[in-house]
Amino acid sequence: MDILRIEGIKKSFKNDISFERKEILHGVSFFARKGEILGFLGPNGAGKTTTIKIILGLMRPDEGTVSIFGRSSRERSLKARIGYLPENPYFYPHLNLREFLTFCGNLSGMRGKVLDRKVAATISLVDLEASHKQRLKSFSKGMLQRAGLAQAILHDPDLLILDEPFSGLDPLGRKIIRDILLGLRRRGKTIFFSSHILPDMEALCNRACLIRSGKVVKNIGLDEIFRLGEGKVEVVARGFEKEIFEMMRDLIDKVEMNGEEFFLSVSKQEYVRAVVQHIYNSGGEILRVVNQHPSLEDIFMNEISGTGGEGEDSRRVEEKEFSGSGRGKS
Ligand SMILES: Nc1ncnc2c1ncn2[C@@H]1O[C@H](COP(=O)(O)OP(=O)(O)OP(=O)(O)O)[C@@H](O)[C@H]1O
Ligand SMILES: [Mg+2]
To answer: CA 188 to CA 148: how far, in whole Å?
Structure first.
């Protein structure tokens, strides 16, 4: 059963000055299965937060349906099984973290010792034990982000919806949140989150849904991304005679250069041995042999820049170029 399914969502907003309506979401559809982490990727203004608000019932769509746990999202009782971290959460500045979480727990119907234990365990999970008596107004951005996650997971929801959970976090804070989310997935929870931080998304997600200008342009499994690179290998080498490029013309798609290192993109797995042999024979040194697959970032940039088409292979084999182009260190 899909835990979350949205189908054909359209949403328009009225312009405050001209009163004209402008469609922002043009029929957005996707789903998340149980125990899956689904990443929601898209550039600023693509419609992620609007979609999330519609899922949560904070905004009504013009058209389309949202079902959660196989039921209509309009059923209020479902809300108890959802945890939500808004893009810009509000925190009562005069409360400390323990008071804030106790307040949130009360709103979810939790009371007494059960709630006290849950609050303490959640504060420890988000690594804020040392600050739990501090008023929230003195929290840093990263600490507030973790406090926001704490309120989202406090009532042990089955579906977590997080709008930019990594925003404002340093690498340690990001790792803490990644580990928490992976732990929740191991417990069978379903997580749907938006983010711009592609390596985090790659490290966490089972699937990524890419949205651009209010339309889903790609819905891709991370396993599929790894398969996209099958057969392509990059050989990194140095110190060989450049004349061998002529002999390797049919074996290599592309050559790039960075300092004295050459990055040779070998067209097929079975050509690797021959390429390595040519390099050794001409006195060169092999530095690395790497199986290539596009990163989520490659796919994102390809789709978001508008060059990607539906079903198009996101690998872009550039024209054969044997003169050795410059290669950035990015
Ligand atoms: N209440 C509103 N009234 C009018 N336009 C709105 C409203 N909310 C959002 N929009 C517009 O809808 C579009 C999508 O906004 P949304 O906040 O969903 O984008 P986003 O993908 O979450 O962007 P970001 O990555 O910057 O958070 C934007 O062009 C925004 O200006
Ligand atoms: Mg947003």
So the answer is: 21
